Amino acid sequence: MKIKLAFISLLLTLFSCKKETSLPEYNVDPVVTAYLSAGVSFGLQLAHQQSTSSVTFSAPALDSLDIIITANDTVYHLILKGNGVYTDSSLILRASNKYDLQFTYNGKSVTASTIIPSKPASVTQSATEISIE
Question: Rounded to two decimals, what is the model's pTM?
């Protein structure tokens, strides 16, 4: 009798479990790449993070964003060049200026801020040319 009861309990336990088939929701966030250098125009590249799962996901478009740069109290709206590349040739970067980035992606506000450092004033170097045989 004890064996039958244990066997029935085991069967109930095995057949009452349900396997989860859904994967957790995947958050889609933008990846912003920008190399800022004094004397050149402002530009950046946007991309999506990549999923490591086999599930395909639908990410918001990168080519329809209103990307705003604020520099010295002047607001610039970057222009799409294609494939997630945004630029503004009228915004020439200057050393010691602060640049603020702002846009909305997938319902979330994305912001960043940076200052381009100025060149050091008193830098000297011991060699101007190096040769290797």
Answer: 0.67
